Prior knowledge:
Blueprint (H helix, E strand, L loop, with lengths): L7 E5 L4 H12 L3 E5 L10 H8 L4 E4 L11 H24 L6 E7 L22 H14 L7 E7 L1 E3 L3 H11 L6 E2 L32 E2 L1 E3 H13 L5 E5 L5 E2 H12 L7 E2 H11 L4 H4 L7 H6 L8 H12 L9
Parallel strand pairs: 1-2, 1-3, 3-4, 4-5, 5-10, 6-9, 7-12
Antiparallel strand pairs: 8-11
Helix pairs in contact: 1-6, 2-3, 3-4, 5-7, 7-11
Amino acid sequence: MSEGRRPVAVIAGASGFIGRAVVGAFAADGYELRLVGRGEPIRWHDSDALRRAVDGADIVLNFAGKSVNCRYDDRNRDEILDSRVRTTRALRDAIAAADDPPRAWLNSSTATIYRHSMDRANTESSGEIGTGFSVDVARAWEREFFAGSLPHTRRAALRTAIVIGDGPAARMLLGIARWGLGGTQFDGWCPPHRRYRGIGTHPTGSDHAPWYRTHGRQKFSWVHIDDVVAAIRFIRDDDRLTGPVNIVAPGVSDNQTLMRTLRRIVGTRVGMPTMRWMLEIGMWALRTESELILKSRWVSPEVLTNAGFTFAHTDLGTALTEVWDDVSGGRRPRRP
């Protein structure tokens, strides 16, 4: 970067929860921003505009993709996959065609790429990739991201856990607790369905939804939105970091502890324990999927911690309390 020139960041998916936070952070860091997406100055269908945007940029960040907080019907399944693979391919093609390609490209991925894990944490070096729809989406996403040769551009896939902040995941969890449904959620038998079957060119897993006897102890890995932004800045500035990077707070909670914490924060005396078949009815009403809270997600940030990154938010209760204060206007609940 020449002296006196503002650094340039190309950010795709800037209207989403993480994207908005990153836009604010990079603007505060003095970056010139070039935004890509529907309703943005640069559109996905305009390959020439994409190439011009990345040409001479210092970094590209991609958070584009349809939200997974929906029912996995055929139409949504296809859109979840296509919105990730197509946009990632478009950026890769633009970078490959650039005369002055960016030195770094950070692309969203997901920690749900790992298997349902009750026995140990999944790290970047020792984690086991899972099977089924969500995993197939993540595998295809990363495969597209790392495809081809981009010799002048460092690439890092951000395998991000469930993000705690004033966003959709935390609002859904707090809402469940407020509605009196904040009891432990037990995996187990459910009416058979095929929404979690594999997808893509190499689909994996069973045609039927898997279930496990977790006894409400399925693991819950998470990360605070402020630490997501801090980690992205850290990866941006450390040229050693490449490949998959787990963005997840150290330590892990479980469903029983999570729901008890949520009940305390919102001031609900009781929460009805929920069996899988009951939860499926509630998730149908909410137009989302039980996998989001029943899969045992146990992930550890090996790459970041080994590189010297320090997480500011490591207590789940404190993080959720901060979110509740934001969404409730600072009103504290009456204690039981």
